[in-house]
């Protein structure tokens, strides 16, 4: 495809990145909604852990590269970054709500802290998986995530 065709239908590079991010976010949201619909809070937390600490990467390598370039490009792609930031905030809030429903006696703020920590740990763990680290590191990260969640009560 030529640049002129892309610019005609999508716009400049920033518009292309924003469209790509929005498409991926919409697609991921629809998939997550379908997977989690009707699950109990405990099953929802279990599925989240299984998804976050799987031994295979959750996104394709080319998508991860695009995200990493975009996230580290200072001053570039402000709209796409805003959408990603909102999607991350929504993910943390949703996981925190699931944790709070699964552990009704837990403090809501503590559930939010645990949700944030577990998601960050899973993201960094996946980033290191691209280096080819042994699966035992993934198993260890998941075990620590489970300990954090169990500490909620």
Please provide a written account of the structure.
With 153 residues, this protein is mainly alpha-helical. Helix content is 77%, strand content 0%. It contains 7 helices and no strands. The chain has helices at 3-9, 13-36, 41-52, 61-72, 78-102, 108-129, 135-150. The mean pLDDT is 87.
Write a brief structural summary.
By secondary structure, the protein is mostly helical.
Largest sheet: none
Molecular shape: globular
Poorly predicted regions are none
Strand elements, count: 0
> What share of the residues does DSSP label as strand, in percent?
under 5%
Question: Distance N terminus to C terminus?
Answer: 55 Å
Helix share, percent: over 70%
SSE pattern, N- to C-terminal: HHHHHHH
Mean pLDDT: 87
Helix/strand-derived category reads mainly alpha
Question: Over the alpha carbons, how many angstroms does the gyration radius reach?
Answer: 18 Å
**What's the number of helices?**
7
Write the layout of secondary structure elements.
Blueprint lengths: L2 H7 L3 H24 L4 H12 L8 H12 L5 H25 L5 H22 L5 H16 L3
Helix pairs in contact: 2-5, 3-5, 5-6, 6-7
